[in-house]
Amino acid sequence: MVNLLSVGVDAIAGGTFGILGTALGRVASYFERKQTFRQEEKRWGHELQLHELQMRANKQETEMELAITAQKGSWDGLRASLDADANIGTAAQWVINVLRLVRPSLTLLLWLITAWVFSRTQDGDIANAAVFAATAATLWWFGDRAPKPKPPVLGG
To answer: Which range marks the domain in which residue 41 is found?
Structure first.
């Protein structure tokens, strides 16, 4: 017959090893979850960095597209201004002369206003803005005023 004490000791030992195995499995599972969480944190951090880089790249791309659009609009405005100026058509000489005096008169008036603002204001930013505007207008108005070359006369 089987020794009852031996069976009891085996049952207690088996139970103890079963509980220890379960406890060790839980401890190992805890460390495994901790390791997995660290890896997930690193992955999330990496994904966040990639997302931030992508957002910066998109922002730069958008800024470049806006700058290109603004530049294109500026050139289109210049072209329209020059085309309108070139298409005066036929008129009396005094009308053409008056039209040609508009830009110089406006420029002189603009620079007089700029000088007045510069002498009256205590704010350097306002004075700088007025000088910038006057300079930009002057260069815009007179930037393409160089005499055009005349076509060569053939057979002369």
So the answer is: 9-87
